[in-house]
Amino acid sequence: MTVLFLLFLAIFFSPITLFSQTILVEAEMGTSYAQYFLRHPLHSVKAVNNEVKFLIEYAPEQKKIIRAEAIAEVRKFNSGNSNRDSHAMEVIEALKYPTVSFKSSEIKIINDDIEVTGLLNFHGQTRGITMKGKIKREGDFLLVNGEFQISLTEFKVKRPTLLFIPTDDILKLYIFAKFKIPE
Question: Is the per-residue pLDDT at 10 higher than 60?
Answer without folding.
Answer: no
